[in-house]
Write a structure and sequence with these properties.
Chitinase A, domain 3; alpha+beta; 23 helices; 21 strands; 4-stranded antiparallel beta sheet; globular; 613 residues
Length: 613
């Protein structure tokens, strides 16, 4: 029995660790340390300081992420989602190459003894969460160490997986320590951060806006524009943009379709009230595949998780009560609350979506097939127009932004945005993309790649910004007079004399965004230094010059700070250390030579596919 238990645990831990092992192996293969050379230059999707990242390694990494995402969603993924995963895999591979290069430069190595010690005393998170390695709900390191010493650990390959895990993790920890071990926050600094988040002020204020000026003329020189551009180049790093023509074949739902869905949900409810188990019916009938596979369970949580109608119905139920059919934008629902504690409830539901009938869907599919046959995957742009004319369809022109899914007419249009930036040429048409609402076909009409925009493209934008800043600064003499008048009488009297309005804020901290005053502005700072009841300013605000009167200020209690100080220090230091590492890696990526060949490789692959290679 003991051996059988060990075998079960070894299998469980091994399958968890094998993912880390495979990931580490793929990254190792692309780091250049394995000695594997690219087959041809076209098979490298990136080059990092002269080291290639192979197309096969990138594709394998993407496939692993895609499988994980499909398992999480319980469905396939769109091109938009795949594009996100491709970028994630690419970034991870690039970072791994950079890390390996940094380890070498810094002399960071890992010995066999360090691996053995870490494996024995610092179990990986996957092992610590394994139920088989727990006693009374807590991780039992003695069970874990007995597992390591068992023959099954070696025979199952678990030790190989552990070694790969620690060869990857130990250098990372050493690198982390070298970069961030000196980060420390003193009590005084922690106290100031705490005060910034907990001290509050409430003010009345007059905001003098640029519209108050009679003389709005300002001059912005080309030299000022060029200087601003040079100092703020990163602000003008913009994503790519494309213009596409779009045809759609809507999945039109009829009144009969709606009636059929209502009839079906009524029958399901009758089945459950007649004695059928909710969980079994949900698995069989619910169109929500993710929750349906779990007997309709949507988990436990508080308010604001669901659409308004669903949430209203759920919170009106008693524990164990079955709802009447509830209509939301997703369709008809039956809801049951399994557990309730305050606003936290555990909910199950069965969804019947309102969809086309088989006969209606067949007509829609035929029309979509016809569109696909006439115009999908074409290089001749006239085929798109000809198909639209033949099918009496009207194309619409829309703009898509790189790495942003397309939303049109209030609906998400899947995959079109990712397709437009996948290496296709202007004039090409897409495959036929499918969504619950419609089929879509796109043609790429124009393409502007992303990156830092040249000065000529953003000159007008910079000129407008600098002109507004100068106009706000021209308000200072007027605002100073109003402030002096307010100090000599009242804020209200000064506002009335200048036909302005006194506005009142809610209580805010030093880090909050305050309408009209902005965030981290002079006006916000003035609210915490001006004596209560007194008038201060003028102070620069987001929308103009502000004259403020502090109506109330509350300072936080030092005792409450002391109670949580150590936890605050630990949390903030960990965050600051991670931030330092992230900033270092970002700076490193900007300072080294990284060549991204993905667009070129994808274009070549498309050509090979079209040629039948």
């Amino acid at each position: 029995m003991v051996l059988q238990s060990m075998r079960s645990v070894a299998k469980y831990v091994w399958w968890v660790l094998v993912v880390a092992f495979v990931g580490s192996f793929l990254l190792y293969q692309t780091s250049g340390l394995s000695g594997r050379a690219p087959v041809t230059t076209s098979t490298a999707v990136a080059t990092v300081n002269g080291e290639d990242i192979l197309l096969t390694s990138w594709q394998n990494a993407v496939t692993n992420l895609e499988q994980q995402e499909q398992q999480r969603l319980g469905s396939g993924i769109t091109l938009d989602q795949r594009r996100t995963l491709e970028d994630r895999a690419y970034d991870e591979l690039v970072n791994e190459v950079l890390l390996q290069q940094e380890y070498k430069r810094r002399g960071i190595t890992v010995s066999d003894e360090e691996i053995r010690e870490a494996a024995r005393l610092s179990p990986p998170p996957q092992a610590q969460s394994s139920p088989e390695l727990q006693t009374d709900g807590k991780f039992d390191i003695q069970k874990y160490q007995r597992l390591l010493a068992s023959p099954m650990a070696r025979q199952s390959g678990m030790l190989v997986g552990l070694e790969a895990y620690y060869r990857n993790e130990i250098p990372k920890q050493k690198f982390f320590d070298q970069l961030a071990s000196d980060v420390y926050l003193s009590d005084d600094r922690l106290w100031q951060i705490y005060k910034d988040r907990h001290d509050t002020a409430q003010v009345s204020y007059i905001l003098v806006r640029p519209e108050s000026l009679t003389d709005t003329a300002v001059t912005v020189t080309d030299a000022e524009i060029a200087q601003f551009y040079e100092r703020n180049t990163k602000r003008f790093d913009r994503p790519g943009r494309a213009v596409i023509s779009l045809l759609s074949v809507a999945r039109t739902v009829t009144a009969k379709d709606s009636a059929d869905a209502k009839s079906r949900i009524d029958k399901i409810r009758s089945e459950i009230t007649g004695g059928a188990k909710f969980e079994d019916v949900a698995k069989r009938e619910s169109m929500d595949s993710v929750s349906g596979a779990n007997g309709g369970s949507m988990g436990k949580g508080g308010r604001n998780r669901f659409t308004p109608k669903f949430e209203e119905a759920a919170y009106a139920l008693k524990t164990g009560e079955l709802s009447q059919p509830v209509l939301t934008p997703f369709g008809w629902h039956l809801i049951r609350v399994d557990e309730r504690k305050g606003d936290t409830i555990s909910v199950r539901h069965i969804l019947v979506a309102i969809a086309q009938s088989d006969s209606s869907a067949m007509k829609t599919d035929r029309r979509a097939d016809s569109l696909s046959t006439k115009a999908a995957n074409q290089e001749d742009p006239t085929k798109f127009d000809a198909a639209a004319k033949a099918l009496s369809m009207i194309p619409v022109t829309v703009q898509v932004i790189d790495k942003e899914p397309l939303n049109f007419a209030g609906r998400y249009v899947p995959s079109v945005s990712a397709w437009a930036f996948s290496g296709v040429r202007v004039g090409e048409t897409s495959d036929l993309f499918d969504s619950p609402e419609a089929y879509y076909l796109a043609r790429l009409d124009s393409l502007q790649l992303g990156g830092v925009q040249p000065l000529g493209e953003v000159k007008a934008e910079i000129q407008k910004r600098l002109a507004r800043e100068k106009r706000i600064e021209k308000l200072r003499p007027m605002a100073t007079k109003i402030a002096e008048a307010a100090k000599g009488s009242t804020l209200e009297a000064a506002a009335a004399a200048n036909k302005l309005t006194v506005e009142k804020s809610n209580a805010f901290t030093r880090i909050d965004v305050v309408p009209g005053l902005g965030q981290f502005s002079q006006a916000i700072g003035a609210a915490f230094v001006t004596p209560v009841g007194k008038v201060g300013g003028p102070a620069l605000a987001t929308d103009g010059m502000a004259i403020i009167r502090v109506d109330r200020r509350a300072e936080t209690d030092r005792a409450s700070f002391t109670v949580q100080r150590d936890a605050q220090r630990q949390q903030m230091m960990q965050s600051m250390r991670q931030q330092r590492v992230d900033e270092y890696m970002t700076s490193l990526r900007q300072s080294v030579k990284i060549e991204d060949h993905r667009t070129k490789v994808n274009t070549q692959l498309r050509k090979q596919s079209a040629a039948g290679v």
